[in-house]
Write a structure and sequence with these properties.
The protein is α/β, with parallel strands linked by helices. Helices cover 37% and strands 15% of the residues.
Length: 415
Amino acid sequence: MSALKGIKVLELGNLIAGPFASRLLGEFGANVIKVEPPATDSSSGGDPIRRWRHLHDGNSLWWSVQARNKHCIALNLKDNNAQEIARKLALDADIIIENYRPGTLEKWGLGYEQLKQINPAVIMVRISGYGQTGPLRDAPGFGAIGESMGGLRYVSGYPDRPPVRVGISIGDSIAALHAVMGALIALHHRNSTGGRWNGKTGADCVAGIGQMVDVALYESVFNMMESLVPEYSFANVIRERTGGSLPGIVPSNTYTTRDNQNVVIAGNSDAIFNRLMYAIGRSDLAQDPDLKHNDGRVLRVNEIDTAIQNWCYQNNIEDVLKVMQDANVPVSKIYSVADMFEDAQFKAREMITNHKLSDGSDISMPAVVPKMSETPGATKWLGARLGEHTAQILSDLGYSEEEIKNLVNRGAIGI
């Protein structure tokens, strides 16, 4: 059983944030139709993710997971005929996800206020750099900009060096998670106020209350910044970069072992700190009354980190992991993707699943999360070729073969 079976999602986005949001909904059973620009003489068409990073048979390996479970239709949304097709798809959509620059869809007659007139129960999730209002509304914004403005970059890295980025597009992914959260909240509200629109008007109209979900990249990142605002407001404290440690929580840091591996040890509760100190042979620190609680340990963070680091320098990674685990202290080697493929926990939880690309090549990809006891998600198929489902979708809308051919010849669609 799929939790979102029967929910229809129209994706008008590209790149990362919007498509990741619709991917998550599709993994739990939503019927996702993804709109992409068709190929032209001057452009290869499609979502740019199709050609990002490592390519195979014309598409990126990233595409195979980012577009899994989606039906792909190629529409030139600058064309009036394609816009009419998009409106027909919107008539039957529960959720529309888009991440164009604000105002773009309005120019094509596909903005929220315009589509609400034909589907009053529709939920439109709009993801943009700065949101649909404010002085920066029209400025371009990617995840990296959201990470910078939202505060994440400022606290990332070491204090004696410029800020660094996480090695993935984390700002886009955080925004996508907020988009899914907003979509499901809006869906629950719509269903509790009347449900999806029945296509009728007047006294026979049945429609719950739809709404627009306005997701800004910088606000999504900002929402993750823990105590940043109250600490500045009340105590005039600006959180700074602290490298691998967690500021104000001691000890929680990254340490290097004798065989030059990196390990994270988190002994930041009082009981765990006590066990950790005994495990590394520092009973003196365990018994020090000034270090009994975190506020006292914060004042002596360098001393504590030095003691842990000196012990790690004397032991290989496997010994460090065993001693910490035996002492019931949270610990982990910092995994590469190769480590994940070999790890017993990943295997036990079936976190890496095996699939076939369209040419029969084997490929692995991450499993669907979270794990649900009654309605688990699934990978039903991998990212489709550009326009693979165009003809079928248009046929379902009532277009004849001749009409589809004419639309192809006009450049309105691609198949």
